Amino acid sequence: MLTLLSLIVVLGVLVFVHEAGHFIAAKWAGIYVHRFSLGLGPPIRPLTFRKGETEYSISWLPLGGYVKMASREEDATSSALEGGTLEGPVPPDRMFEAKPVWKRMIVILAGVTMNALFAWFLYSFLAVKNGRQIDPVTTVGRVVDSLLPPEAQAFSRIRPGTRIVSLNGKPVTSWDDVVQGIANSSEPAIRLTLDDGSVLTAPIHPDAIEQRLKTAQAIQPYRVPVVGQVLPGRPAARAGVEPGDTIRAVDGRPVAQWYDLLDMLEKNGARPITLDVARAAGHERLQITPYIDSVDGPNGRPQPIARIGVALGGDFRSEPLTLGQAVVEGWHATVGASTQIVRTVRGLFSGRISKREVGGPILIGQLAGESARMGLDAFLAFMALISINLAVLNLLPVPVLDGGQFLFLVAEGLARRPLPLKLRERLTMVGLVLIVLLMGLAFSNDLRRLFGA
After folding, report:
1. Any idea what DSSP says for residue 213?
2. 207: which DSSP letter?
3. What pLDDT sits at residue 388?
4. What's the mean pLDDT when you consider all of the chain?
5. Contacts of 281 (CB under 8 A, 6+ apart)
6. Ramachandran quadrant class, 448 (left: phi over 0; alpha: psi -120 to 50; beta: rest)
7. d(CA 65, CA 49)
8. CB 409 within 8 A of CB 104
9. Which CATH number, 2.30.42.10, 3.40.1120.10, 3.40.50.150, 3.30.1300.10, labels domain 227-312?
10. Which of 112, 204, 231, 239 would disulfide-bridge 391, Cβ 3.0–4.6 Å?
11. pLDDT tens profile 32-65
12. What's the CA gap between 250 and 75, in Å, rounded?
C-alpha cells in the first residue's frame, strides 16, 4: 500500500508541476485554454469543475496529464489523448497558432522548465535542512573484486590502508570526491593516484554508467570498527554493547576494521560469538548470539545474513549552509542529476547500457516506496531525481514530446511557415509508436524484475 501511495504522490505532484508550467505560460501568452487535466483521456465528471473559460479535471487514464489549448488544427491523436474535441467560440487571436513563434516556444518549454525548477527547489531545501554531508576518509578499506567490471580489474591491486591522493589529476579530500569522480568524471578513463606514487587506470567510458557505479561500489573506504548506534531489543543491546565501543576481536580473531566484523558474522551465521570491545572504562568480553536477517544479494534476490544489531560510527561531518550556499548546492545537484540522465540516454543508444535497465511505472513505484520507508529526506530527493528525469526525457526530439514540438516550431521559424499538417501528423504518429514501444520495453523489464525472470 505504501508503494502505491508513494507512486501516486510522486507522479501526481510531478505531472501537476509539469502541466502547470504549460498552463501558466499559455495564460501569459494569451492562449485560450479549454481544459487543465491530470490524467489522459476523457475527464471524470464528478472530479471536474469549471472556473472562467477553463475546465479543471482528473481524467480516466493515470499516465500523465495535459493542457488543452485552443487550436485551429485538431489532429486525431491529440484529440483522443486530450478527451476529444471541445466546442465553443474562441476569439481568433487567442488560438495557439495565432501567437508568435517565440511565445509558443516558451509555452512548449514551460513544462520541462517547471520540472527543473521544482527539482532545484527540492535539492536546495534539503541542503538548507541538512547542510553538506562530508565523509572525510580517503583511505581504502577494501576492494570487492566480485563487483569490479573487467575494465577496472587494475583496482583490485589496491591494498587496504592505501590512501587515494588524486583522481584524474584532481586532489581528493573526502570519500565523496572519490565516489563522484569515479561515477561522474567526463574523461574516458578513471586514473587513481595512490600515496605510494603508483597510478592505476580503468578505461571506462563516461556513458558506461553501470560499470562506473559498480567500480565506485567496489572500492570501499576504511572504516574503524567503532559502534555508532545500538539497535534496541537486538542481541548487541541485550549483551551490553554501547555506542562508542571499539570492537577489538570476535572469538579471539582480531578486527582491524568494520568489514572484518561483517565478514566474520557472515561466515559465523547464527552461532554464539564472543565479542571483545574497548571502551573508556576498560575492556569487556560479551557473549552474543546473532540473528538472521534477509537482504538483497548481488543478483537482486534475498539472501540470509547474520547481524547483531549495531550500526557503524565514524567521522562523518555535516556543514551547515546559508540560504545562498544551499541554492548553489541545489543547482549543482540539479545539474549533476540531469547530466547523469543525459549520459544514460546516450549509453542506451550507444549500447553501453543494456536495454534491460530501462524501467517503467512499476520500478518507479518500488523505488518510491523504498525511499518513503527511508524517510522524508530520501523521498524528496527521489522526487527531485524523477522530476529532472521527466524534464530531460521530455526534451528528446520525439514529436509527441515537448522536444519534438519545439523542433516543429524551430522549423516553422526558419521556413516562416508551419510544416505541412499531414507531415506533422505522420511524424507525430511515428513518435507515438516509439513511445508505445518504449513503454512496452519498460513494462516488460519491470515484470522481469518483479518475477525474477
Report:
1. H
2. T
3. 94
4. 85
5. none
6. alpha
7. 16
8. yes
9. 2.30.42.10
10. 112
11. 998 898 888 788 888 888 888 888 988 877 778 8
12. 72
Residue 115, burial from CB neighbour count under 10 angstroms (0-12, 13-18, 19+): buried
Judge whether residue 22 has pLDDT over 90.
yes
pLDDT of residue 424: 79
Distance CA 227, CA 241 (A): 8
Q: Where are the domains of the chain?
A: 102-131+322-417, 140-221, 227-312
DSSP per residue over 342-362, as a string?
Answer: HHHHHHHHHTSS-GGG---HH
Q: Given the C-alpha cell 519534438, which residue does it identify?
A: 404
> Has residue 85 got a pLDDT over 70?
no
Average pLDDT score over residue span 300-313: 79
| DSSP helix/strand/coil, 161 | coil
C-alpha cell recorded at residue 403: 522536444
**In Å, how far are 211, 252, 265, 293, 394 from 269, measured between CA atoms?**
31, 17, 6, 10, 49
d(CA 384, CA 117): 10
Question: What's the 3-state SS for 297-316?
Answer: CCCCCEEEEEECCEEECCCC
Q: Round to the nearest angstrom and report the end-to-end CA distance of the chain.
A: 24
- Model confidence, pTM: 0.81
List the single range of 270-284, 294-308, 334-348 with lowest mean pLDDT. Answer: 294-308
| Calpha distance 166→190 (Å, rounded) | 11
Query: Among residues 27, 20, 19, 29, which one has the least CA distance to residue 104?
Result: 29
Q: Is 3.20.190.20 the CATH classification of the domain at 140-221?
A: yes
Contact call for residues 29 and 104 (beta carbons, < 8 A): yes
Task: Report pLDDT digits (tens) over 196-230.
Answer: 889 999 999 988 888 898 999 999 999 888 888 88
Give the least confident one: 5-9, 15-19, 125-129, 149-153.
5-9
Strands 140-143, 219-221: pairing kind: antiparallel
